[in-house]
Amino acid sequence: MPQTIPRNEQHELRRQLESRRDELEREIEESVDESEQRADLRGQVHDEVDEAVADDLGENALAEAERASEEFDAVERALSRMDAGSYGLCVVCGDAIEPERLRAEPAAERCIDDQRRLERETAARSPSL
Ligand SMILES: [Zn+2]
What's the predicted TM-score (pTM) here? Predict the structure, then answer.
């Protein structure tokens, strides 16, 4: 079983998580603004092709906002686990998450085994066409 990430490294990861959180906050605001602007644009264009383009762009911006807000939540959860002293432990099995995994992805909340299991299950639930 791998060792938990050392405390002194958690400080560095906390800094990374906090700046990522600020970044995501801006990204979400921008994407939401953008999708609202597209919605306005859609109201103004009368050409059907332009309207479809405006629609697509608005949807992309929304999808982007959604992805960013999921990551934002994960970052927030990681920060609150740091406060609670349970940072770096897998939320499924409670084992220490591999430190190299946390260095690459500070918001990781599952060990690699549980992450892979989750990805397999997610893939099974929503088969790609
Ligand atoms: Zn696990």
Answer: 0.79
